[in-house]
Amino acid sequence: MDGTYELLGPKVQGNPEHAQNSLLVCHGHGTAGNLGSDVPRTYDGLREWLAGKDIEGIVFHHDDGRMAKIKLRDFGLKRSH
């Protein structure tokens, strides 16, 4: 399947997702799925929305194929476990 993927598993980045086995997850098909217009598009709005979430970040997909990944650490936030 075309797209971008995230490698998860017991030997990857401390396994924050607590995966039992190694696996590839297509972006946009994880636990959050397609968030659509619910995600704010301003700096302050994104920071507030991301705060306290147990995710690495969020990937925005544009219709023309461009993508942008924003991570919690971009806002000085840490992942809640």
Describe this structure in words.
The protein has 81 residues and is mainly β. It contains one helix and four strands; from the N terminus they run E-E-H-E-E. It has one helix spanning 43-50, and strands spanning 5-8, 23-26, 57-61, 67-71. It is flat.
Show the helix and strand layout:
Elements lengths: L4 E4 L14 E4 L16 H8 L6 E5 L5 E5 L10
Antiparallel strand pairs: 1-2, 3-4
Q: What is the tally of helical segments? A: 1
Q: Which structural class best describes the helix and strand composition?
A: mainly beta
Q: Which series of helices and strands comes N to C?
A: EEHEE
User: Looking across the biggest beta sheet, what order are the strands in?
Assistant: 1-2
Mean pLDDT: 84
Separation, N- and C-terminal Cα atoms: 30 Å
Q: How many individual β-strands?
A: 4
Question: From the structure provided, what is the oligomeric state, counting identical versus distinct chains?
Answer: single chain
Biggest sheet record: 2 strands, antiparallel
Q: Determine the fraction of residues in helical runs and give it as a percent range.
A: under 10%
**Per DSSP, what share of the residues sits in E-state strands of 2 or more residues?**
15-25%
Which descriptor suits the 3D outline?
A: flat
Unreliably modeled segments: none
What is the alpha-carbon Rg in Å? Answer: 13 Å
